[in-house]
Design a protein that fits this description.
The protein has 222 residues and is of the alpha/beta class. The chain contains 9 helices and 8 strands. It binds NADP nicotinamide-adenine-dinucleotide phosphate (NAP). The site of NADP nicotinamide-adenine-dinucleotide phosphate has 26 residues, from α1.
Length: 222
């Protein structure tokens, strides 16, 4: 089992932390307001969880999840993440995040921005196209007929394998969508971004399972 560090412990971070603890991992949570504001969540998660600063979470994690609003990506600590696989869940919503001209122009992607901020780390985009309530409910044991796959993208094959192995423990297969630049194929506004939405219930839980073949078909339909 591993230690998973979290930079950001909100809807997606908190949900992933729950899945990680249930899978037997230790988790180190952090946010912008300080560890005291995360003691309640850590207590809910139990003895495998603790609250810390972003720097401590970055240092502690065998794998570190960055799951903040985009505007906070430059605050992610750099040096403690040297050599670390970083899972990036960030999406870009200009109305929330403010405008990033290079994203508006399609010159780069959020994952590439984080990778440029963390040049000595190995960024893998994942969990960016699943609503947190669906993430909480769609996990299944390996081999289950209705197991879903998470779209991932990254520039380092070894890091993607590490991320895939972790994601497997959390209850999901993966579909490798390619390099970080290819993460735009499952970004907001694409068919694959809504892979798990129930066509009737939309964002209502539990969502609709989507296996790797369905994710691949949605990526190709764009
Ligand atoms: N919600 C979803 O279903 C969903 C699905 C897929 C992807 N995403 C993406 O994943 C990211 C997180 O989404 P979310 O819904 O989990 O957001 P959220 O509930 O608002 O949580 C954001 C977390 O980031 C922390 N944070 C903000 N600024 C920080 C900083 N400078 N340093 C460290 N931590 C900081 C916040 O801490 P404080 O509260 O202390 O500021 C909070 O714990 C976003 O980019 C979002 O677009 C979300």
């Amino acid at each position: 089992m591993s230690t998973i560090g979290f930079i950001g412990s909100g809807k997606i971070g908190g949900t992933l932390a729950r899945l990680a603890v249930d899978a037997g991992h230790d988790v180190v949570l952090s946010n912008s307001r300080g560890p005291d504001t995360l003691r309640g969540l850590a207590a809910q998660l139990g003895p495998q969880a603790r609250a810390a600063t972003p720097g401590e979470a970055a240092r502690a994690g065998d794998v570190v999840v960055v799951t903040t609003p985009l505007k906070a990506y430059r605050d992610v600590p750099v040096a403690p993440l040297h050599g670390t696989v970083v899972i990036d869940t960030i999406n870009y919503y200009p109305q929330r995040d403010g405008h990033f001209p290079e994203l508006d122009a399609g010159r780069t992607t959020t994952g590439e921005l984080l990778q440029a901020h963390l040049p000595e780390s190995f960024v893998v985009k994942a969990f960016s196209n699943i609503f947190f309530k669906h993430l909480a409910t769609l996990g299944r044991p390996a081999g289950a007929a209705d197991r879903s796959a998470i779209a991932i993208a990254g520039d380092d094959p070894t890091a993607k394998a590490t991320a895939a192995a972790l994601i497997d423990t959390l209850g999901y297969d993966v579909h490798d969508a390619g390099a970080l630049a290819d993460s735009r194929r499952f970004g907001p506004g694409t068919p694959a971004h809504h892979a798990y939405l129930d066509p009737d219930g939309m964002f209502a839980a539990p969502g609709r399972p989507a296996d790797a073949a369905r994710i691949a078909a949605l990526l190709d339909s764009n």
